[in-house]
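Exercise 7. Predict the joint structure of the components listed below.
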Amino acid sequence: MRTFTYVDNKKGVTIIELMITLAMILIVIGLSYLFYFYVVRSFEISSTQSAVQENVRLAKNLIDKEIRRASYIKIEEPPDDVNKYNHHIMTADGKIKKDTNYLLGNLSEGVEMGLLFTKTSDSFIEVTVTGSIDGDYEYSITSEVLALGGNIDNSINDSGDEIYFKYE
Amino acid sequence: MDKIISLIKKQISNKGMTLVEVLISITILSIIVVAFTNLLGWSTSNIFTMGVKSQAVATAMEITDRIGHKVAITKKPEQGIAALEGDADWVGSEDFNDLYTEESKTKEHVFYYDAKYKEVEDEIGSEIEGYEVTVVVFYEEAKYHVKLESFILQPKSSETDD
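Solution:
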């Protein structure tokens, strides 16, 4: 039975060998867990940040377009003459609202949006759109927009988070 | 018979791996992991860079709007050219690397623009007067830039188109 002596080897592993093996397994598992959590965390940050940026960018583009088209614009205070300004953009519960509809629909779910309009000259309005999630992942875009239709009313407020306007 | 015995011997060999082999494989594995980690970090920071890019695009549109507004309130090409003259921070260079300096790197958005008066013919053959405007906005410490090219019409009489 010479051939089976190799298989029947009853020598086990020494305690040193066992400990080295255990230590190495531990190191590998520990590192993989660290890596796994790093990947999960960075994926979370990336996707949340890009969601906030997407919303802000989209809202900014839509609002810019409205301001360019509008023929009468008024910041903050609701106008007395409703017929002159029949559209408005404002924030409600962290969402941007145009008239009675939410501007971004369900897209901005969870993203808190903020607006700031400032009249900087006779034909320019500075528009700031901010977005965040639970006070984190803040992002904002600010730029001045030319109101091609002219007629920005500034009799009451120069700055505010609501805007009233009308198309010709 | 000998063949079968040697085959059995081969299959039920319980020789493990040597320590050196294990160490080499761990090293290779960690090299792969580090490479992937870099890729991941790069893609995350890219999202933030794209955010700054959107802000730079908004700035470029604002500057184009300003140039358009300056031209829109004029009535004749001479007035339009005069309104833009002396105001252009940059005229005509194609080499963007020469445009920013050490000082401008410290600012968040550095921009340059160029406006050239031009007369072009449209499809019907009538002449159109306007300005070829190029706005360049640098971002991320002038590592990147966005370039916005547009054509702004010179209003003739009462038109205020842009």
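Discussion. Residues 76 and 156 of chain B are 6 Å apart (CA to CA).
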